[in-house]
Fold:
Amino acid sequence: MRTMMRWGQIASIGALAVALALTGCGSEGGGGGGGDSDASSASDGGNDGSSSSDSSSDSSSDSSSDSSSDSGSDSGGGQAGAGSSYETAVTADWKGEHKFDLAKRGSKAFVTFEGKKGQFVALLAFADEGDEHQFVDTVLTLHDADHKQLAMNDDPFPKFGQDSALFTYLPADGTYYVVVRDCWTWQDEGGSVQCGLPHDKPVPGVTVRVRGEDSKPPTFISDAPSQGGGPAEVSYAQTDNGFDIDFLYGKAEQAGEVDTFVTKLPAGVAQPPLRRGALVFFGQKTGSFGNGAPGPIGTVSVADATAPDVVLGKLAMQPGDLFYVPVDADKSYHIKVTQPAGSVAGFYTLAHGLDRTNAVEQDDAANDSAATAEAFPDSFEGQLVLSVDAELGKAGDKDHFKATLDASYEYTASITCWAGSLGSGVQGLHVELLDQDGKAIAGSATDEGTEPGKTGALQRENITIPKGATAAILQVSAKGQASDNAGSYYRCKLALE
Ligand SMILES: [Ca+2]
Ligand SMILES: [Ca+2]
Ligand SMILES: [Ca+2]
Structure:
């Protein structure tokens, strides 16, 4: 069962440029493997949500007033007033919002609602804007009637801000609590995150919203039922500042269950012939320090909508993974989320967006030999970090990309390449650095494993290129191709110093 939601209004879209930088968009690019910046497991958080803050005995105006609880922030830790404890939690207005003052380290905001088993909820916390580092860095948790923590979000992944957004399905009928605090308060509770100074925030305001699928905003788009109807459509908006990011989510309760979405990138995302479009997916944390899902997301795959059985890229996604597939703009693609035969995710939440590739190889046929290497596309003389997105699409393909060197220098080079870890079907990627005569530079050869699915980034550092070399040629080949994944893409970065 699948659904999708627009994320564009959850955070300011201008910040999306930061998110896109994760995937190496732009000429400095190449950082395809950068998606794990927020991926570390939070299993050491050790939060007991029912600690000291339970003690408030102040007036509990927990009617459905959608205005705020304006807590008296100057009374010892700022925990007085409605919405400052479980007992005084403000009842959620599903169409309104709730404002809190979380200036003081130790202060927390509490909102409560009644929920049903299997109900989807979106929980959002926005700090009032202000000068940098002056506003609250929210951390949001969801708790059951016994105050046990079920789910948590600090920052979005990809990280384009520090406001919290949690998308989850409720596990049972009952009373729930949303708790929001500043990062430093979370750290005091035993939570594991990195917080920026100051401890008390000059801009104190935080707005909390509780939303469900039936309360529409911030623009939820429910798809047709998973049985019967066609794939759910996902569309992207192109804005002045960049591109939209969306959020796919769905229940995944059956072994082998497949949810299908269809999407088409706006024509403007690609810059032919230099750059293609790309679809990018970000695996969300699961468990009680993530979205609350019992298991990982499942396998995400992309296929041309006119040939839906030919997989162009796929990844069995774990939290923190980044799945990247180059695609053509203005053409329809299927996105599938498939549960394994054994365990299932329960539900999944998956941020995704569109991107454009680094500059792509320009002459695949001619670049087969070192003597006819193509210059790194989009490169210029004297450039020290060179990137390329390319394909090993034909049997025995070899690619050669040349960087021009100043022969009077000795260079130190490093190579980083990605294939399987991004969801490509390329297996056994092999990379070597050659000089202008096609002779291998000592210590430059490096291999990625041949097993299907994920392997890490391929890396080789501290390669010495002696004086006298007029060119460094990156040679790329592969041992094979996965039988169930036609994705032949890879991306490489050569850095010189
Ligand atoms: Ca945060
Ligand atoms: Ca080639
Ligand atoms: Ca090629």
